[in-house]
Amino acid sequence: AAKSGGMERVMSSNFCVAIHGLVYLYHSRSTVSSEELAKHICTNPARVRKVMLMLKKQGLVQTREGKDGGYSCAARAEEITLRHIAEATEMHFAEGFRTGKGCPGLAEGATALADMAEIDMDCLNASGMAQVMQELYEQMDALCMERLGRITVADLEKRLKNRGKAT
Prior knowledge:
Helices cover 54% and strands 5% of the residues. By secondary structure, it is mainly alpha-helical. It has a two-stranded antiparallel ribbon.
């Protein structure tokens, strides 16, 4: 678990970089270098390579070596859901309790449920709250993932194309 909000922001921005990269790859329908992707995502090539490696490990992008090398979609954009991307980038949408944020009663340096479960208190609410909150956050995360499973990279690209057009 992260000790500061920095790690959560990196995870969240990895998710955003991954989505942006995949939508751009789908839109370009070609092999694109990390430098070109970085330019269009407004980040640096090293960051793009790190995130693309996460996607490659899950079979969402493929790479080609050499002068004309780079990244391309490994699957049809209609088949790549935002859930696939969230899983590849290890994104969780309800992180507050897992990281111990906003949880009164956690000792400094505690890692949420693991450390709180050891607390033996007479108060029913305090002694059982860790488990209840953990289950709540897991349910919220599952709902987010379920929704993301219905949105594809192709859907986002279509939305971007239609942006500004009269509906």
